[in-house]
Write a structure and sequence with these properties.
The chain is mostly helical and 103 residues long. The chain has a domain of 36 residues. The chain contains two helices and no strands. The longest helix is centred in the middle third of the chain and has 57 residues. The chain is rod-shaped, with a radius of gyration of 40 Å.
Length: 103
């Protein structure tokens, strides 16, 4: 078992080379972490922007379709919202300017 542990350790010949390997290893890990974090932030930002665009588009279409349904009427005289149309008659009470006043 001691043979396996000795093979996994740094070569003990030059302590300066061992320190350089440790420093380079730490730098590679740090750069990898930072690049991964930047990529994660970019992906999350793109997903949020895409979700906002889709959300606004769906809201706009619902609003547009909802406005069109309020003004359309079906064959039974009822609008798409279910309210009924009340019909009535009216009579002009004041004098007519186009007619003779003798009537």
């Amino acid at each position: 078992m001691t043979q396996q542990l000795k093979q996994r350790q740094f070569p003990a010949g030059n302590p300066l080379a061992n320190a350089l390997v440790v420093v380079v290893g730490v730098l590679v890990i740090a750069v990898s972490f930072v690049l991964g974090l930047v990529a994660l932030v970019a992906l999350v930002t793109a997903a949020i922007v895409l979700a906002a665009i889709i959300g606004v588009r769906v809201w706009w279409l619902k609003r547009k379709l909802g406005a069109g349904q309020n003004y359309t009427a079906n064959h039974n005289g009822e609008s798409a919202t279910g309210s009924e149309i009340i019909e009535g008659e009216f009579r002009v009470v004041g004098p007519d300017k186009g007619r003779d006043s003798t009537e």
